[in-house]
Amino acid sequence: MPVIPESAAISTEATRLYVIGDIHGRLDLLERAIAAIGEDLARYGSDALTVTLGDYVDRGPASRGVIDRLAQSPFPTPYVALKGNHEGMLIDFLDDPELGTHWRMQGGEQTLQSYGVAVRPLMVGKNNAEAAARLRDALPESHFAFFDRLRTSLQHGRFFLCHAGVRPGVPLGEQSEHDLLWIRGEFLKSQADFGKMVVHGHTPVPKPEVLPNRINIDTGAFSSGRLTCIVLEHDGYRFLDL
Predict the structure, then answer these.
(1) pLDDT in tens, 135-145
(2) Dihedral sign, CA of 50, 139, 132, 106?
């Protein structure tokens, strides 16, 4: 199934959403999620949509492998890929190599290594431009295309899906990209009704956090070995066993 780009409309016919949290270079866990979705689909029917919440790269060992897999749209359903702040940092580094020091501290070293780019010059804060050029050369066209297709949010039925969260008091359709990719404190502390249930990642928690106004499914896969896939349906939710 193809990845659905930002500009495309999403069919409202899907009654089941498979939503996967932050992957961070854990290709092994992504493969488990793909298999589990296939098994669940065979049991409950094909009327479904798969959504990944961003942060595919950095920290884990196989960022390139994760993007290779997702760029092929490996799920047995239509697929929507959302943008995380770590994809934002990678893209920003290509545009402005001086951001390399910050990105490195957030897990960029592992991403560079996965693409075969030497990290030592970047680690000492030198030759950022050269590292960015080498990364650009190493990125396949399919990876650039995947990054270009990333959405910042998705509204589907009673759910609003994004990477980090939303700013309280701002209509869902008017949220800034920065907040959708980066917000924490104001959103996480808010008990407001956002109008829809917000499903997000970005802030690691030991187990999925289900609250009256939001659901957090970032279970820190890169270090915990736990990648979460939640199944959202009109009458409730459940989690796949990965």
Answers:
(1) 999 999 999 99
(2) positive
